[in-house]
Amino acid sequence: MSRKEAERNIRHKFLVMIDYSSDQKNMFNFCRDISEGGLFIETHLPLELGRIITINFKFPYDLSEFATEALVKWVRKEHSETAPAGMGLLFVNQTEESKHALAIHIKHCLS
């Protein structure tokens, strides 16, 4: 993994409500962390591996909306003392503009 890829995947604590659709139902769950490459959604009902979904959320500091497609990359079905149940999502099919906007928003949330 290159240095740029490693930096892109650094996870940052980020608590925000995520909206996504599953089987024609809108789902709302909390995101616990985010990176430029993806995020983790806390849920006791994770989707199946390999599924591509559209996620939507608002950045807390200015309420700007962000939407992108994401791939269910990994699933943790059981809650433990150290980690909640949920799913890791990898952002896919992003435009360069979308990637840039996400990077700026993440940096702003950390400052």
Give the % helix. 10-25%
In CATH, the architecture is Beta Barrel
**What is the oligomeric state here?**
single chain
Class by alpha and beta content: alpha+beta
Strand order of the largest sheet: 1-2-3-6-5-4
Beta-strand share of residues: over 45%
Shape call: globular
Q: What's the number of helices?
A: 2
CATH T-level fold name: Thrombin, subunit H
H/E order of the elements? HEEEEEEH
Q: What would you say this structure looks like, in words?
A:
The chain has one domain (3-110): Beta Barrel (Thrombin, subunit H), CATH 2.40.10.220. Strands 1-2-3-6-5-4 form a six-stranded antiparallel β-barrel. It is globular, with a radius of gyration of 14 Å. The chain is an alpha+beta fold and 111 residues long. It is 19% helix and 47% strand. The chain contains two helices and six strands. The model is unreliable at 1-7 (pLDDT under 50).
Give keywords.
111 residues; alpha+beta; Thrombin, subunit H; six-stranded antiparallel beta barrel; 2 helices; 6 strands; 47% strand; disordered N terminus
State the gist of this model.
With 111 residues, this protein is an alpha+beta fold. It has one domain: Beta Barrel (Thrombin, subunit H).
Detail the topology: elements first, then pairings:
Elements: H1 3-8, E1 12-22, E2 25-34, E3 38-42, E4 52-58, E5 65-76, E6 86-92, H2 96-110
